[in-house]
Amino acid sequence: MNGWALCPALENQIHRVHIVEYSPEVLHTISCTWNTLKPFAVAVYCIGKSDVWLDNKCIETETEYPEIAALWHHPNTPRYIGNYRTPSPGIPLIILQSKEDLIKEKARLKEAGYYSNWKS
């Protein structure tokens, strides 16, 4: 993403991020083997998928695999923190992360003062 990590939690974990193209089989295999593989994150690019499809797929994944946090980004649906538009990928994307690792990273970022920089 133009030199930026996919999210601030990935800054020191980029070597543990896998990037794959979506297929039902790929998503199923990643999800079923998550606890064995222990990636920090998997970015699944989903060419041609809508924001509604991404949202539904993330809900399905989190419901079936509660240890995984599934977040999505779509170029037509920008994300904002306060009035700041966050960087957005040029293609539809699902980011899978370990809920446990994500909670730890949120605590680390909070302790480091990261969130105090964002005003709503």
Topology, element by element:
Elements (H helix, E strand, L loop, with lengths): L16 E5 L2 H9 L1 H4 L3 E5 L5 H14 L3 E6 L6 E2 L2 E2 L7 E6 H13 L9
Parallel strand pairs: 1-2
Antiparallel strand pairs: 2-6, 3-6, 4-5
Apparent shape: globular
The CATH topology is given as Translation Initiation Factor IF3
H and E string: EHHEHEEEEH
Tally of contiguous helical segments: 4
Outline the low-pLDDT stretches: 1-5
Mean pLDDT: 85
Largest sheet: 4 strands, mixed
Text of the CATH class: Alpha Beta
CATH architecture: 2-Layer Sandwich
Nearest-angstrom radius of gyration? 14 Å
What topology, given as strand order, has the largest sheet? 1-2-6-3
Q: What gap, in angstroms, lies between the N and C termini?
A: 24 Å
SSE class: alpha+beta
What proportion strand? Answer: 15-25%
The structural domain count equals: 1
Structure notes:
This protein has a single domain (8-117), classed as Translation Initiation Factor IF3. The chain is built from four helices and six strands; from the N terminus they run βααβαββββα. It has helices spanning 24-32, 34-37, 51-64, 99-111; strands at 17-21, 41-45, 68-73, 80-81, 84-85, 93-98. Residues 1-5 have low confidence and may be disordered.
